[in-house]
Amino acid sequence: MSLMSNIWINKLYKKVGNRKLKLYVFCPEAPLKNRAAILFFHGGSYTKNNGTSPARFEHHARYFSELGMVAICVDYRNANDEGFTPYHAIEDARSAVRWVREHAEKLGIDPEKVVVCGASSGGYTALCSTLLEIDKTSLSNHIPNALVIFNAGVDGEEIINRLFPELSNKATELSPILHVKRELPPMIWFVGTSDIIYESNLAFCEKWKQNDNLCVLHTYDGMNHGFFNYEMHENKPFKQTVQQTVEFLQSLGFMESKV
């Protein structure tokens, strides 16, 4: 993996068979305590051989670590792993959040300021991890304190029947839009108006708000899927979306507001 030359720590958070799952952690230079953490879940994870990896969010991680957060690119099981299903990705997302909270003191973070960011299938994974009641334990320490979502799939029935037809009997269970409820984390959402899932994203955000949850929605006119990635559109959407995310996290008290 060609991730980042200045990783503060490359940490194994889980092992499944021979598969070693790692966190690629960017830590601010200043050795502070009680910082917020942000975990990034990359997209492209539900289709084989598309070249995506945790490095997809490298530039986001660098940006937020420079602003004082502990930023973490998460390696989680994907379609290139034998026998993969979305359940594996969801389990790994929960494991990653739990590991970060369990090691909060060592990482210098506040366990009540853990943000999860996901894009596309990574966003779907983040939402499922937060919303679905499929864990055999009664633990809830996998639920983040805030969400940052980029053009995530929300219609699990469409996703499962298209990509994992063998799980069609589980499609309702794996559909985030069917599991929105009250008392969910505050969320910021980004989607382009030319994205094929634009309308479903709007419907999901509206349902989030109808359940008295905070959702800050930013739509980007004429933009398609993945518009926010580094090196796309001369980096203009990248810069705009990270700044809007910073302002959102500042409003929650997760980042300091500069005067």
Give structural notes.
The chain is an alpha/beta fold. It has a single domain (about 30-250), classed as 3-Layer(aba) Sandwich (Rossmann fold). Helices cover about 30% and strands about 20% of the residues. The protein has helices at about 60-65, 85-100, 105, 120-130, 155-165, 200-210, 235-250; strands spanning about 10-15, 20-25, 35-40, 70-75, 110-120, 145-150, 185-190, 215-220. An 8-stranded mixed β-sheet has the order 1-2-4-3-5-6-7-8, with helices on both faces. Helix 2 crosses helix 4. The chain is globular and about 50 Å long.
How do the helices and strands line up, and which of them pair or pack?
Elements: E1 9-16, E2 19-26, E3 35-41, H1 58-66, E4 70-74, H2 86-102, H3 104-107, E5 109-119, H4 121-131, E6 146-150, H5 156-163, E7 187-192, H6 198-210, E8 215-220, H7 236-251
Parallel strand pairs: 3-4, 3-5, 5-6, 6-7, 7-8
Antiparallel strand pairs: 1-2, 2-4
Summarize the structure.
The chain has one domain: Alpha/Beta hydrolase fold, catalytic domain (Rossmann fold).
**Which structural category do the helix and sheet elements fall into?**
alpha/beta
Q: Quick one: CATH superfamily?
A: Alpha/Beta hydrolase fold, catalytic domain
Question: CATH class, please?
Answer: Alpha Beta
Shape: globular
Helix content: 25-40%
**Total domains:** 1
CATH third-tier fold name: Rossmann fold
Q: Mean pLDDT across all residues, rounded?
A: 92
Number of helices: 7
- Uncertain spans: 1-6
- Tell me the Rg in angstroms: 17 Å
Strands in their spatial order, largest beta sheet? 1-2-4-3-5-6-7-8
Any idea what the CATH architecture is?
3-Layer(aba) Sandwich
- Topology pattern, helix = H, strand = E: EEEHEHHEHEHEHEH
Record field, number of beta strands: 8
Question: How widely separated are the two ends?
Answer: 39 Å
Largest sheet: 8 strands, mixed
Proportion of strand residues:
15-25%
GO molecular function: triacylglycerol lipase activity
InterPro entries: AB_hydrolase_3, AB_hydrolase_fold, GDXG_lipolytic_enzyme
Protein name: Esterase/lipase/thioesterase
Keywords: Hydrolase
